[in-house]
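Shapes recur. Our protein:

. . .
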Amino acid sequence: MNLHKEYIDTSEPNVKIKFTITFNKETYNWVNGKEQQKGYKITAVPVEKEGLFEVTTAFTGFYEIIYPVERQSKKRLQKAIDLLHENMDRYLAWFEEKGYTIEKSEIL
């Protein structure tokens, strides 16, 4: 379940970078069979928004456990949101390296 989401505009029409924060409570990643931390996870993907619909392409984004904690709380979620904003330049630079042009007026 998405606990928080934000969109950053790109220079392409209808294409935005979508950032979501979720809480990862699993310690096993079933996709790659590796251990993973519990905590708040940032997922970032480019999406094409058309009305109520979003289209995304597999393997075009990334995720990161930004705030490893054992349990959720409103205060911890706010800390994860603050960490997203603190790291936003680094995250957007990753997309710029992939060829996306970020609309600088949209950056927090």
Observations:
- The first helix runs from residue 74 to 86.
